[in-house]
Amino acid sequence: MGSETTGNIFVVDDDRFVLESVSTLLDEYGFTVQAFTSGHEAVRQFVTKPVDLVLTDINMPHMDGIELLEKIRFLDRETPVVLMTAYADLDTAVKAIQKGAFDFIIKPYSPPYLVHTVEKGVHYKRLTQIEKNYKRELEITVEKRTSELAEALSRLTEMSREIIERLTAAAELRDEDTGQHILRIGLYAKKLATALGMPDTFIEQIHIASAMHDVGKIGIPDSILLKPGALTSAEFETIKQHTVIGERILKGSSHSMLQMGATIAASHHERWDGTGYPYGLAGEAIPIAGRITMLADQYDALRSERVYKRAFDHATACDIILNGDGRTMPGHFDPRVLSTFDAIKDEFAEIFDSSQPQEQASCGVGAHQQPLPLGI
Q1: What per-residue confidence (pLDDT) applies to 88?
Q2: Burial 32-71 (b: 16+ CB within 10 A, else e)
Q3: How many angstroms from the chain centroid is the CA of residue 32?
Q4: What distance in Å separates the CA atoms of residue 57 and residue 60, rounded to the nearest whole number?
Q5: What are phi and psi for residue 86, nearest 5 degrees?
Q6: Residue 12 · residue 58 · CB < 8 Å
Q7: Which pTM was predicted?
Q8: Backbone angles phi, psi at 104, to 5 degrees
Q9: pLDDT tens sequence across 234-272
């Protein structure tokens, strides 16, 4: 005889004649059969030796076939259980199906039908296992691809950050502290955006995009940009063009990071009271990214030494921003951004101090004794 379908089968029946005849039949068809005269023995074996199908009589002492079915289902939801009975009781059959029986065979059984039912059950178990394995492999693949994508996106973000920093530094090569300045502006802006309760995407974007605020300086002549003394009115008008030059460089991109960069380049010198440049925007008309970067840039400019000014310490810089000094006034800033800065200003000092060389930091901030001439 023989069959292409083989599998491990538990046969359970308290009638030894039926148990032997069924076992012999299935063995001749290539199945590996383990016979039990009680449900308790079958359950004990099933715990340590799962099989492809359980074929059991219903009417047995101590543990009947329905109870055996329930225990098998508790241990394993997938292994088919086929019930046999000499009494065609519809209620029993319905109850068995409700409890998860795979099929129902009436004694005396037809050998071909019994073999067909067992083959069908084994096929079902194996298809179920294949599907289960496929789902698991799919989950593993998805997890792996997701991890790879996240890693690629992380590398892309880091690469984008580095490219932006290097391109921005190219616009300000005259300043040896440019790299640290760019880093600090991003950290200040991120701190302010976080404290303001901005969305996570905005916070991450402004962290990088704010570094592009002065990219337009690449279009300003060195004779003006590096002038050690006060600028004339005409020279200052030229300096102010770095905002529109930066906007022109970054404008039109489909990348949201560059879009924000263009916005910041154009608006980081606008003032809340409308006295800023290049467009003289006021209040809420100034994009929030520009309002945030404007304060961050102002703080760092006050803390840093330039060819036209000395560096101020943290307390002096904060006093100028919060109370004004005639040139910089509180009315220049968005009141909400200004009050947020006041609440977290010490974190700005930590960012600035941590970027300084160790020997310079040990001397204290604002240690420059000779003030340089101030520009317009």
Answers
A1: 63
A2: ebbbbebbeebbeebeeeebbbbbbbbbbeebbbbbbbeb
A3: 50
A4: 7
A5: -90, -5
A6: no
A7: 0.57
A8: -140, 125
A9: 999 999 999 999 999 888 888 888 899 999 999 999 999
- Sheet of strand 81-85, all strands in order from the earlier edge strand to the far edge: 32-36, 8-12, 53-57, 81-85, 103-106
CB of 296 closer than 8 Å to CB of 188? yes
Q: Identify each DSSP E strand in the chain by its residue range.
A: 8-12, 32-36, 53-57, 81-85, 103-106
Both tokens assigned to 206: 């402004």
Cα–Cα distance measured from residue 20 to residue 23, given in angstroms and rounded to the nearest whole number: 5
Report phi then psi at 163, rounded to 5.
Answer: -60, -45
CA 342 to chain centre: 32
CA 69 from chain centre, in angstroms, equals 45
Give the chain's length: 376
Distance CA 303, CA 316 (A): 9
- Both tokens of 78, joined, read 């997938």
What pLDDT is stored for residue 358 in this prediction? 59
Give the model confidence (pLDDT) of 193-227 as tens digits. Answer: 999 999 999 999 999 899 888 888 888 887 887 78
**Which of 310, 316, 296 minimizes the C-alpha distance to 369?**
310
pLDDT at residue 40 in the model: 92
Nearest to 337 by CA among 372, 371, 291: 291
Q: Please list, in sequence order, all residues whose beta carbon lies within 8 angstroms of the beta carbon of residue 225, skipping any fewer than 6 positions away.
A: 174, 217, 239
Around Cβ 324, how many Cβ atoms within 10 Å? 13
State how far the Cα of 338 lies from the Cα of 30, in Å rounded to an integer: 83
Q: Which amino acid is at 240?
A: K
| Residues 117, 115: Cα–Cα separation, whole Å | 5
For residue 65, give every residue at least 6 positions away whose Cβ sits within 8 Å of its Cβ, in sequence order, or none: 12, 39, 56, 57, 58, 59, 83, 84, 85, 96
Tokens 């996240």 appear where? 150
Contacts of 332 (CB under 8 A, 6+ apart): 271, 272, 273, 275, 276, 294, 298
Residue written as token pair 């009417």: 59
Asked if 178 and 346 count as a contact pair (C-beta separation under 8 A), the reply is no
Contact status, residue 69 vs residue 91, Cβ threshold 8 Å: no
Specify the pLDDT at position 220: 84
Those residues of the chain that have pLDDT short of 70 are 1-5, 88-90, 159-179, 307-308, 358-376
